Amino acid sequence: MGQRVLVVDDDPTVSDVVRRYLEREGFAVRLAGDGPSALDAYAQERPDLLVLDLMLPGIDGLEVCRRLRERDRDLPIIMLTALGEESDRVLGLEIGADDYVTKPFSPRELVLRVQSVLRRTSPAPPQVAELVDGDLRVDVARRTASLHELELALTVREFDLLAFLMRNPGRVLRRAELLQQVWGWTFGDQSTVTVHIRRLREKVEDNPAEPKRILTVWGVGYRYEYA
């Protein structure tokens, strides 16, 4: 049996199409049609990845994402959103969604996003076992990070972004490059990077409003500076 994907959408036609495309690629797929069913399905058998529609009956997708992220910070979550839901899409990223796909979408594009996220969840053996910047320590092998000896609650994407930044100190990294190297996207909304950078600063900077580690290079991107 392949990796397990839980697809949560109240439109049975969308769910069935997504299921068939994922199963064709070897995934084991379970479906849920509303928020409470999604939480029950997660409790019964933790999936390897969650595809979550924003608009759901019972409990909406944002609240499902929030509750699951409180229980499981490592669960990869791809959110499905409608074109006019930009503010909700940003909020979804802020509360822990790793990626999003905008409706209407190509089922093949969604499969590629699923594969990309799962590849980064199980990376190849790293060349450097640990990255250290003063009191900030990133154990690449164990995929854990700590600051002042307290473990940080990082999502999969936040961890990947932090590790990539720390591996490339002093380099100005454009948002498009970060999208490609960290997300595996050759195209996409670069505000995704902005949201994740802001979340990272809140976790690794003593004063996120005046960052010392993750610096903005205005009009270009970001640069990581070791203490």
TrEMBL record:
A Pfam family assignment: Response_reg
Name this protein carries in UniProt: Response regulator transcription factor
Xref: InterPro entries: CheY-like_superfamily (IPR011006), OmpR/PhoB-type_DNA-bd (IPR001867), Sig_transdc_resp-reg_C-effctor (IPR016032), Sig_transdc_resp-reg_receiver (IPR001789), WalR-like (IPR039420), WH-like_DNA-bd_sf (IPR036388)
Annotated ranges, domain OmpR/PhoB-type: 128-226
Organism field: Dactylosporangium fulvum
Modified residues (4-aspartylphosphate): 53
Sorted UniProt keywords: DNA-binding, Phosphoprotein, Transcription, Transcription regulation
DNA-binding region, residues: 128-226
SMART domains tied to this protein: REC, Trans_reg_C
Response regulatory domain segment(s): 4-118
